[in-house]
User: Which sequence fits this backbone?
């Protein structure tokens, strides 16, 4: 599952790069690719939860997986029509994942794990970029597709980080159960 979660992160990052490569296209022409990437990431997140041995640290996997799946389905069903709604939608998705990373960092620090700083930094960056997407028209006025690309790259980094940390949590869990 670790490799699938890492692959999901890479797919989201590549989807974001694809948005950068096509800044002049409309959101509707990109919606299928974006929605499929979100659904794939959601399914992999749900599967990672189901296969993870350490259920204590994996509740965030199922929450993020279900959220990405549902939001991906909304993108595929053309429920986002106004440009302002698109930016708010993806900004909220990234903010939600950022909040999950901050919660993960807090939980890791509380458990005595040493790798709590990276999820905290990623979570705060996700929250910041998500908030920025609300104010895009006031500050830099990126095109909708470019800002969605930024969101997908950040979300891909979040998912990639979760995938990389799965083995760490798994090894830590095995070590704790062997001691008991």
Assistant:
């Amino acid at each position: 599952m670790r490799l699938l979660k890492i692959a999901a992160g890479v797919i989201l990052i590549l989807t974001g790069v694809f948005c950068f490569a096509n800044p002049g296209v409309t959101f509707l022409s990109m919606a299928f690719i974006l929605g499929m990437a979100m659904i794939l990431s959601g399914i992999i997140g749900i599967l990672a939860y189901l296969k993870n041995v350490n259920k204590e640290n994996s509740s965030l996997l199922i929450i993020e997986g279900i959220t990405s799946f549902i939001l991906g389905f909304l993108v595929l069903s053309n429920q986002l029509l106004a440009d302002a709604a698109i930016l708010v939608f993806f900004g909220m998705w990234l903010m939600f994942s950022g909040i999950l990373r901050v919660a993960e960092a807090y939980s890791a620090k509380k458990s005595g794990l040493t790798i709590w700083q990276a999820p905290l930094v990623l979570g705060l960056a996700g929250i910041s970029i998500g908030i920025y997407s609300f104010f895009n028209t006031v500050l830099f006025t990126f095109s909708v597709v470019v800002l969605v690309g930024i969101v997908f790259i950040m979300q891909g980094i979040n998912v990639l980080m979760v995938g990389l940390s799965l083995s760490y949590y798994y090894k830590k869990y095995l070590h704790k159960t062997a001691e008991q």
Summary: The first helix runs from residue 2 to 21.
